[in-house]
Design brief:
The chain is α+β, with helices and mostly antiparallel strands and about 400 residues long.
Length: about 400
């Protein structure tokens, strides 16, 4: 078989942990006021806090019907479930000026638990929640899922009636469906915007993170700094995502019609752990990979036409310890090379679950495994099928 040359730029995913690299600039949506008065506000946000104590508040759940509601009806029902979160960081010494960041949050239980983005509360010394009726309460971080940029905080709610937002099923949404966002863009509290689901299944690594977030929802609903942590809603008024990122080719934190939300099902999976006060960990294998297609198999003279072609193995990773081999010996070599060699392993199964794509492998590990678990990988190397066992680690910070 004649092997054709293949450029690396077209094929190699550079994000470690079996996820494809995405070459666009992303900006988180936590916002500042833009005012110069002290305490100064910054574009950086802080980390969510919530304590698991119950302090006697009462709640009503905002019901979602089977048919689409008007935007006005959804707003009336859900606005009380959306809060503004102000985080204060720094200022612990005479030489530090306190900075404030603003984001949004979603009331998820009657004890004052609020779901938001982890970047909204990261690094905060103190948190304050402002409810739709204008009342404010201090809050504490309960639990975090930094890998999915999610966190739960808890606000003091003694004697306060809360409206709990209904959580939907993000697996049921389709491209083209109408969506709405409620939040605090540019400190404009209670702002409603609407659009459609533009795409599903996007995978991005937020700025400063090494771990990509899977299955993000892309929308053209206008979201801007301050919308972070607020709900993306379907037309029944159910939360289907947590607004998290926007994309702007200029690098500015201003919406240009391309924004992303963490799917609510990712939050649903980690909520029990976050509400229990833990930090959710995610398993790390430590590879960069490329989906095998018939064309790639022909180009590289591979003996299989489906699987994950290992382009790079992170030094010291579970993948290296298990004996996986990548096409390149280092990220530097991969970056400098013009061609993709055919010497990498191909992962075809994980624990007897067929692996046909990077998403198959990443999805299986993320939903079925945790740090410290082992996974049996069926691989093809030089035309021979082998079995390797890897003990997964915590995703590096």
């Amino acid at each position: 078989m004649q092997r054709r040359t293949l450029t690396v730029a077209a094929l190699v995913g550079a994000a470690a942990g079996a996820a494809l690299a995405i070459g666009i600039t992303l900006a988180v949506l936590a916002g500042g006021s833009g005012q110069s008065s002290a305490p100064a506000r910054s574009e950086a946000a802080a980390t969510p806090t919530a304590s698991s104590s119950s302090n006697g508040g009462s709640s009503t759940t905002a019901a979602a019907g089977d048919d689409c509601l008007s935007a006005a009806d959804i707003y009336d029902r859900l606005r009380p479930s959306v809060v503004t979160i102000t985080s204060t960081a720094g200022g612990q010494s005479p030489f530090q000026v306190p900075t404030e960041g603003a984001g949004s949050g979603i009331v998820i239980d009657e004890q004052g638990a609020i779901l938001t983005n982890d970047h909204v509360i990261a690094g905060a010394n103190s948190l304050e929640v402002k409810f739709a009726d204008g009342s404010v309460a201090p809050a504490q971080v309960v639990g975090r899922d930094p890998g999915n940029d999610l966190a739960v905080i808890r606000a003091g709610v003694s004697g306060r009636q809360l409206m709990v937002a209904p959580l939907g099923d993000s697996d049921d949404i389709r491209v083209g469906e109408p969506v709405l966002a409620i939040g605090n863009p540019f400190n404009l509290e209670g702002t409603l915007t609407q659009g459609i689901v533009s795409a599903l299944g996007r995978t991005f690594a937020p700025g400063g993170s090494t771990r990509p977030i899977r299955n993000m929802i892309q929308t053209d609903a206008p979201v801007n700094p301050g919308n972070s942590g607020g709900p993306l809603l379907n037309c029944q008024g159910e939360v289907i995502g947590v607004n998290t990122l926007l994309e702007n080719p200029t690098g500015d934190s201003v919406n240009v019609g391309v924004a992303f939300a963490v799917p609510v099902n990712a939050a649903t999976r980690s909520l029990p752990d976050m509400l229990a006060g833990t930090t959710v960990g995610h398993p790390w294998l430590g590879i960069a990979g490329q989906e095998v297609t018939p064309a790639l198999a022909e180009d590289l003279d591979l003996s299989v036409e489906a699987g994950v072609y290992v382009t790079f193995v992170e030094p010291g990773s579970p993948a290296e310890e298990a004996g996986l081999r990548g096409a390149f010996r280092s990220e530097t070599e991969a970056a400098r090379s013009s061609f993709l060699p055919g010497s990498g392993d191909v992962i075809v199964a994980a624990d007897d679950q067929d692996v046909a794509s990077v998403e198959d492998l990443a999805g299986y590990l993320d939903t079925q495994k945790g740090p410290g678990d082992t996974v049996e990988l069926a691989i093809v190397r030089d035309g021979q099928q082998l079995s390797l066992e890897a003990r997964l680690a915590e995703w590096p910070a």
